[in-house]
Amino acid sequence: MSSIPGFDPRKVPVVGVDAQLPAIDAAQLTAGALRHRFALEHAPWQPEVSTEGRWSTRPVAKAAVLVALVQREELYLLLTERTHNLSNHSGQIAFPGGRQDESDRDAADAALREAWEEVGLERSQAEVIGSLPQYETGSGFDITPVVALVTPPMELRPNPGEVADVFEVPLSFLMNPAHHQWQLFQMQDMRRRWLSMPYADPATGKERFIWGATAGMLRNFYRFLSLPLPGYDVRP
Hints:
By secondary structure, the chain is an alpha+beta fold.
């Protein structure tokens, strides 16, 4: 999509907003509740968004991202704005992460390594609690989202070659479908529909336009947290 001249996802028509779906209750958006949920064995379930229409012909490459939840007065999601010089997804809002190397033990190892290389997040501050379903991007990456709880304070050092900015968004905002909007792009024989979650950042006054793969993986996180859990015991 980035190869389309003048393409701006903010200007693509919104064709629906999912305000009819319930928000995830605040009691389920705590460190203890998330640890408990990921520790349970779940019946098989299908993610709502798992693949994009391919526009790249290269072989699919394994990748991992870190869904880093910072433990403040409530949980905040750590996100990055990618620099405009990158060959893939330049300028977009993304999780820290990237291609999985042969030296990585698994997806979690790759996500933690990439988070260290991109933003300087120390491994010792990230407690991996689980992962979400894989997501295949149109650019040819098969991504495993690795979920971790992060203990502040953090001294982040964004890599200027990859990261233009680092910021946080309340998880409660992202887990409320009233903020999930569907957009439809059509041009000649190309037609794509995707999710976006625009966030007005009070710290900077900027709009953080979360869309595409990042929004798709967050929607799957919402669906995961919506799964019924009989006898669920919420713990702080």
